[in-house]
What we know:
Blueprint (H helix, E strand, L loop, with lengths): L1 E7 L8 E7 L13 H13 L7 E8 L2 E8 L5 H17 L4 E4 L14 H11 L14 E7 L8 H18 L7 H9 L7 E5 L1 H7 L2 H7 L7 E8 L8 E11 L19 H15 L5 E11 L10 E4 L5 E4 L6 H16 L3 E6 L4 H6 L4 E5 L2 H14 L3 E3 L17 E2 L8 H10 L8 E5 L5 E2 L9 E2 L4 H12 L1
Parallel strand pairs: 1-6, 2-4, 2-5, 5-6, 9-10, 9-13, 12-16, 13-17, 14-15
Antiparallel strand pairs: 3-4, 7-8, 8-10, 11-12, 14-17, 18-19
Helix pairs in contact: 2-3, 3-4, 4-8, 7-9, 8-13, 9-12, 11-13
Amino acid sequence: xxxxxxxxxxxxxxxxxxxxxxxxxxxxxxxxxxxxxxxxxxxxxxxxxxxxxxxxxxxxxxxxxxxxxxxxxxxxxxxxxxxxxxxxxxxxxxxxxxxxxxxxxxxxxxxxxxxxxxxxxxxxxxxxxxxxxxxxxxxxxxxxxxxxxxxxxxxxxxxxxxxxxxxxxxxxxxxxxxxxxxxxxxxxxxxxxxxxxxxxxxxxxxxxxxxxxxxxxxxxxxxxxxxxxxxxxxxxxxxxxxxxxxxxxxxxxxxxxxxxxxxxxxxxxxxxxxxxxxxxxxxxxxxxxxxxxxxxxxxxxxxxxxxxxxxxxxxxxxxxxxxxxxxxxxxxxxxxxxxxxxxxxxxxxxxxxxxxxxxxxxxxxxxxxxxxxxxxxxxxxxxxxxxxxxxxxxxxxxxxxxxxxxxxxxxxxxxxxxxxxxxxxxxxxxxxxxxxxxxxxxxxxxxxxxxxxxxxxxxxxxxxxxxxxxxxxxxxxxxxxxxxx
Length: 485
């Protein structure tokens, strides 16, 4: 099923179904004179019955046997996010009620702040909600839901929203691909194509990574017949030589757990273990498409964690790019090994203003926060505050979790500088973040977002269908927009 938004020159719509906005404190707003007295009476009765409601609602009324009038009832709109959520709700309504050809009349809701709806955001919400991944279905639902708006009702179509939508859906597509298709070699090919948007893409393959000394990352991927990579994507949106904003992502295209093998049940979900990297990719694409006036770099470590005669063993010791040695006690704690090299490399090469990494890093964060919040760990209060506020504004929420030097002893190794798991037990997400912090060499402001509970949803959310959510793109785009542009 596809959503198509048509921007038309409409003096008087000939489209059979119509949608109008109404609210309690005003007369019927919308398409004056396009419905008869019986319909008008039904609308007024609905308003009377709902005079105390605080919930935005959508209903439909039959005008003729094959013509519907959809009432979008506004109780209160606080911000653009509310407008987006109402648009998403509207898309679900027309999809579930088989109303596939509808003209939406822009709201005429007066000056009351309770009813100021952003029509661009409303349409954007519908587009976000309409995503589906059906690339491999032989029998596709070819039905098209046509929503039409009058061009004059869109004062200025926001290209920024189109850029965000494209970035999010690119992230969703990457996360949704099966592991036999989006293996590391294929992933890199897709990233190289980003050059056409003005992004500088640099690929470090096995040979280059070995020369650099990125043995923590290489150790994770050595059991796979596919390559291991570190890919950097640079967007230079300003001629200023200011320090870039840096975003780092974990890109484990498939995670068997290695010799610390995962249970068979739900292992198929491990195609999503590259969602942190996909969010970074989607963000950089968004920044390029909307010509963001900042300098930014995305760095993603791309590997496949497989079992083979050449795979890493529990007990192996590797020397990271930073020079620090790591005893690998559990090969399923692999994401932190990938990020260890990616973080130090990014910090050393680009000397960024700050670094934010994203990773589906621990199951423990799901135990802590479920699928409502991603975990935020940081060495910088200002950076944390900016990220928390951005998350609230776009409904990609974060919850700050603790870091403390006392956790370090849980990651100390008798045989190397550190070990990659905490065998004492407890604080799984915190000790993982504490491990990553050791690879921030120059005290760069840094935040780690553990998005294990947020990257994929078994059920639909307010702005996404079930499946890959694209979590992180809206959050980080808003964070950049509010604080660095």
